[in-house]
Every structure is written in structure tokens, then in C-alpha cells.
Amino acid sequence: MxxxxxxxxxxxxxxxxxxxxxxxxxxxxxxxATVCGDQYLLALADPGQIAALSPQAGDPWxxxxxxxxxxxxxxxxxxxxxxxxxxxxxxxxxxxxxxTVELLERFGVRVVRIPLVERFEDIETVTxxxxxALGHPERGAVLNDAVRRRLAAxxxxxxxxxxxxxxxxxxxxxxxxGTFVDAVMTATGLTNQATxxxxxxxxxxxxxxxxxxxxxxxxxxxxxxxxxxxxxxxGEHPAFLRRAAITPTVAVPGKTWVCSGWFLVExxxxxxxxxxxxxxxxxxxxxx
Amino acid sequence: xxxxxxxxSLAAALLVVSVAGLAIGYAPLPPTxxxxxxxxxxxxxxxxxxxxxxxxxLLLGIEVGAALGIAGAALQGLLRxxxxxxxxxxxxxxxxxxAVIAFYFGFAALSPYALPAMAMAGAxxxxxxxxxxxxxxxxSLTLILAGIALSSLAIALTSLAMNLAPNPYAVxxxxxxxxxxxxxxxxxxxxxxxxxxxxxxxxxxxxxxGLDALTLGEDAARSMGVDLNRxxxxxxxxxxxxVGASVAVxxxxxxxxxxxxxxxxxxxxxxxxxxxxxxALGGAVLVTLADLxxxxxxxAQEVMLGVLTSLVGAPFFLFLILRVRREAW
Lengths: 288, 329
Prior knowledge:
By secondary structure, chain A is an alpha/beta fold. Chain A has two domains: 2-114, Rossmann fold (3-Layer(aba) Sandwich); 159-276, Nitrogenase molybdenum iron protein domain (Rossmann fold, 3-Layer(aba) Sandwich), CATH 3.40.50.1980. Helix content of chain A is 43%, strand content 13%. In chain A, the strands form three sheets. Chain A has a four-stranded parallel beta sheet with strand order 2-1-3-4, sandwiched between helices. Chain A starts with a helix and ends in an 11-residue tail after the last helix. Chain B has a domain at 87-250: Orthogonal Bundle (ABC transporter involved in vitamin B12 uptake, BtuC), CATH 1.10.3470.10. In chain B, helix 3 runs antiparallel to helix 12, helix 6 (114-136) packs antiparallel against helix 7 (140-164) and helix 13 (256-264) packs across helix 14 (272-296). The interface between A and B is medium-sized, with 25 and 32 residues. Chain A: Keywords: Signal.
């Protein structure tokens, strides 16, 4: 169902923006150097505009539109590659590949540095900027409208009903007020346990405090990823696993909030869907 | 200093640090609750924290510290060089390479012993190479340069293995393997490493008489009935088992095998055989203490254990190099 919603949103964006009979609307050739940019490019650009996506674009654990990405070339980010592909616009992370993007700009390529924004309002601005850079500002407006409508429906539903929940990644990483994870949780009506604990921003929990103050509900992400990592020690520790097994848990696919973008609405809908499937009242897990 | 008082003092220090390691953690627990918790009594949540989180971490710290301490002392005795240390001569990095291959290519999932086995194989190859180099030219410079080359190669191959895996977190994962940590380790980790560290440590302890004889030179040792080939094999095999198993579960923790034997050597009359057991205890004290400090430093992310041992060990290493050079001149 969510997949269908996703396809419908993308189709609406493109259908609303591309005039009948003009399949190859004007717009610069564009490439993405990051999985975040991949999702924007696939949602807003014409297929013919897309010169290259990032190497992670086809990773089904990281990239929401991995299926669509399979139809496009995926290249390792490098100025030389983008220039040889005749790219006019490159979408990159604001915090990485500084030398590559500086070099591209020297060659006249427009680089859109996608910032890590934490609020849906700021995501709208990023979407509009990217859509304008790709030559399709109207598609940005349509996408923003669609996201706004879907979020409004979630807020009205209030699936979380104010219940407290703790967000955790396999390494013990969490997120409190001021993060896009908090924005998503709040949109579904959940109370963020990390914020209630007096924390803010991107934060982390240690096993001892988790055992002593187990949350009433868990919102997990990236636990399903097949990557092996020594950073997952928290999530693989028996002290965590035993308690997580008796705690109501909603697992939100990591690919829906691998970074902040229009697709965060997918994370919010996945979260709300998981909340709907939970029993009405969660049992406490104060046991050892 | 006689051996027994030294061992008693080190055991007492280990006991104090261990009690502190159990009592101090991320969550404030009453000392009486901690003591009761060790024996499974009292508040179930306190019992869970003490027995499931703090105790495995403490036991692993003792195991890893003892392994690194005794391996350093034995290697220094065999090579008759105070700079021989598992981290400096590439043994730890090579063990890390074996562990990374087992971990990221899925072998570790096949058997719980695949990870330590691969790490020990890496350590065995590195120790063998170092021994071969030292046999041709036993000078400190050659040993250190060979160690640098071996470490660099092992680190490069580790990085390559992670890139090929493929692993999206290669950079941060590298740091975890190179700097070591005991954070969130499980009882299973402590149990997996234990038999190999025990066997390796036992093998190294048995080399004491041979190492003492070796201080008089190879010919003298031979005339005293020491089988040098057997001695070398025992030190190489014992070090590989102990260091390999510890790196497999905690990553590479540097300088423990350098600092501890050096501090204790004057207290045992510069007899390498008598240095082995005190070095194991001293290593356990140092690693347990460093792990405790890593928990106490109020940073957003826990400080890596290897960072702390290196902060102590690297200046010490520099001092030692200058002194060895001065003596050589």
C-alpha cells in the first residue's frame, strides 16, 4: 500500500508538471552524488535528464527508490566522471566531497548542496531549490503539496495518541527534539522519550540506562540492514535483545529516513502503520 | 623484589580496580546493590546491569590486558629487545586483519570460533615474520622498521577488505578495530576469548626457564639444555593465541605489552621468566583501569580504549627509543 502511495505521489508530481506530448521537458542533465540526492532526482527529474546516480542508489536497504534507480547509471562520485557525462547540475551532501564540488563549480557546474535539515518546513525549501535547479519548479511545488497533505492526514489520525516511545539505531544512537526523527515521531502523535528524558538533538543511549529505564515502546531503524558492523554491539547485546523482545516495537525501514528529504513522509506513514498494528495498550517491561 | 610480594601487590591492585570497574558505570548504582548483584541477589534491574553488562566487560578487560601484558613480556624476552610489543611489531594489526576478514565476509557467522581463529592465524603469520627478520638482524631499528612495514601492510589490507566487503561504514569501523574498545561486549565475547587466552598464556608461562637461559646468549642457552626451536614456537604460538583472541573481541589496544613489562622488569631483577606472570597481572590492571577511565570521561561518545593506552604508551615509547639509542651509542 505504501509502495502504491509512493508511486502515485511520484506519478502525480510528474503528470502535473509535464505537459501532454512533451516527454523530454527541458532541464539540465543532472547527477546525484548521494543517496539523499538520488531520491530527489528520481522524484523530480525526467528520466532522460538523469545522467548518473550515486553508488548507493540501487541499495534496497538505503535507497527508497532503488527499483527506479536500477534503470539509471550509478557512478562513484568524481568531478571527472560528471564532467565527462556533460552534467549541468550535481546534487551533493552539504557536509562531504568539498573538493569535488568546488572543482565542479570551477567548471561551471551548478552544485546543489543538500543540507541536513531537521524540520518539514525546511525540507520544503530544499525540495523547491532542487526542483528549480533541475528546471522543474512546478514539480517541487506539487511534491511539497502532496507531502503536506499526507502529513496533515497523519497528524489528524494521531496514531501515536501521545504514547512515549524511544527511537534507537543498532549502535544505541537515538534522536531527541530538534531532529528530523523527532519531527516524524511528533507527526504521528508519539511523545519522544529521548526529549522527555531532557535530551536534545542527536543523542545516544547506553545499555545500563536502557536496562534500568526501559522504554514503553521502541521505534527502531536500520536493525534490518544486513551490514555487519562492530558498531552494532548495543543492538546485538543479549541485555538489549531480551528486553526489546518484550517491548512493543515499530521498525521503520531505514531507507525512508536515511537522511532528511521529501521521503520522510514515507517514514512517518510507516511509523503510523506500525502503530496501528500494535495492541491498544502497551505492556510495561520493568522486568529484569 | 621477590616474586610473591609483587604478585600479591598486583593482585590487590587488580582487585581494587575490578571492584571500581563493577561499581562505576553509566548508571549510578549503590555499592551494596552492586555487591549483591554480582551474586545474583537484590533488585533484578541492578542484577541485570551488573551481571549482563559490567561483569562481562570487566572479565574481558582482565583477559585482554593479561594477554597483551604476557605476550609483550614473552616477545621481549625471546627477541631480547625491550621494544618488541604486539602492537608495535604488527602482530595486533595482523590479528585485526584476520578478524576483519572473518567478520565482514560472513565466516564469523558460521562458527563462534571462526573470528578468534582467523585473528590468531593473522597474529601467527605476523609473529613468524618478525621472528624471521629478528633472526637475521636482531637490532632494534630492524625490528621496529619491520614492525612498521608489517603494521602498515596489515592496516592497508584491512582497509581493502572492508572496501571489498562492501561496508558502508569502512572509515568508522577501521577506527574501532585500530583503537579497540570493550563497550557493550557480551558474556559470549568473554567466554569465546577465554580458552585461547588461557592456552596461549599457559604456553607463554611455560617458556620462563628458556627465556631466562636465553639472556646468557643462544649458545649458553643451548648448553643448558634449552631447545631454542621449541622455545621460539612456544612464544610465537602462545603470543598469537593470546593476542589474536583478544584482538578478535576487543580490537587492537596498543602499548600495553610495552609499558607493563618495562615498568615491572626492574622489580623482578631483569629475569624474563619471572616477568611473565606479573606482566599478565599488570596488563590486566592497566586495561581495566583504562576502561574505567574511558567510561568516566564525559564525552558524547565513549573514548576508545586504545586512545587512552596510546596516550600513556606513545610518550613512553618515545622515551624508551631515546634511551635504547643512547645505550647503543
